[in-house]
Amino acid sequence: MRGRIELVAMLVCGLGLMSTARAQVSLPPAAEIGETVIHLSDLLPSSAGADLRRAGRAVILGFSPVPGSPRALSGEEIRRRIPAGLRPQIAIPEQVLVVRRGWPIEAGAIRSAIAEWIASHGGDEPDLDRLHWPAILATQPKALLQAVAAGWDPPRQELEFRLRCADALACRPCLADAPAESRRPSPQLWTVPGPKPMPLVRAGERAVVSVREGEIAASRQVICLESGNLRESIRVKDTQRVEVFRARIVGPGRLTMPSDAGL
User: Fold this and answer.
1) Strands 158-165 and 60-63
2) Residue 201: burial class (beta carbons within 10 Å; 0-12, 13-18, 19+)
3) Helix (H) or strand (E) holding 99
4) What count of Cα atoms within 13 Å lies in the side-chain half-sphere of residue 66?
């Protein structure tokens, strides 16, 4: 009798282990998401159960990259953020590459932004049908675009316009250029008036602070407390933890911190 009980117990344990193995799901090596924050549920495969998906919705892995700029999450980073009770159910790869879903910026939005700049600052309008710009993705359809500066490129004999989304987090900044039809335009018509250049970030605007160490990158959203230009250090406030710290400006709506500062 005792032998039969031990046999039954072994069978029950074996079935339990098989059930646990079957219940484990694997995170994919790459995932496309559509939100500002990366949740564990965004990375779960379709085979994940409703309970695991619901629990994964409460697990935040970090901020999403801007469209067109992937973010790599290391397996160790993901494992640290997953509650211990969920880890046995999930097989985590060495790295998950997260891409933000985006919508292409329409040509009409780019032409309108440049036309508004010229109307405000003067100068002859270039042939907008001959504009060139890189592919830009935004976090929402029909995102509002702004021209924030313009200049002359002597080697290429072209006008350059610096563009960004009105919401700095909605898309990456870029340059659009147009061939000049005649001689170089008057400099005062194509630069920002005043002794100081136009700030790349302004007080009150949202921006993204990033830190990179080797192949590992992390980022967070902040609110700028000061205006500033390239390579200047300004005070910013974290939108989640209400923490104030300093970060260095590296581009429109983009800042960085030393790798040992952490995010």
Assistant:
1) unpaired
2) buried
3) strand 95-100
4) 23
Q: Report helix, strand and coil shares of the chain as percent, to nearest 5.
A: 25, 35, 40
Structure tokens, 44: 């779960």
Domain boundaries defined on the chain: 2-101, 104-189, 206-256
Rounded to whole angstroms, the Cα distance separating 204 from 117 reads 22
Architecture of domain 206-256: Roll (2.30)
- Per CATH, the number for 2-101 is 2.60.480
Q: What are 92's two structure tokens? A: 């985590």
Q: Phi/psi at 186 (nearest 5 deg)?
A: -65, 130
pLDDT tens, N- to C-terminus, the chain (263 residues): 555 545 444 444 444 444 444 458 999 999 998 888 899 999 999 999 999 999 999 998 988 887 877 888 999 999 999 999 999 999 999 999 998 888 898 888 888 898 888 888 776 667 777 888 888 888 888 888 888 888 777 777 778 888 888 887 778 888 888 876 544 444 444 444 433 456 778 888 888 888 876 666 778 888 899 988 888 899 999 877 778 889 999 887 889 986 555 55
**CA dist 75 to 87, 89, 263, Å?**
12, 15, 17
Strands 145-153 and 158-165: antiparallel
Among candidates 240, 205, 203, 192, which has minimal Cα distance to 220? 240
- The whole-model pTM stands at 0.53
Task: Give me 217's structure tokens.
Answer: 């990158």
Give the Cα separation of 151 and 154 in Å (integer): 10
